[in-house]
Please model this.
Amino acid sequence: MDHNDVYEICIEGGPRAHWQIWFEGVELLSIQPENNQPERTMLVVPGHDSATLFGILAQIGSLNLRLISVELRPTP
Model:
């Protein structure tokens, strides 16, 4: 794994202003819905920091947000 790799975590619902506090240091991106899908938010987490990744996944669970996917995106 390269230090520039990132995890992309997709959750249901559009980003809310207060989410930035909950997910400090993580980039939040809005994903526009397609084909009647619900709005989604992508959280971009540095791939070299597994402690942050697991903390964010725990936070998603404790906030009862719907997790859609988690993917590792290697850098080219």
User: Anything to note?
Assistant: Helices lie at 19-22, 50-62.
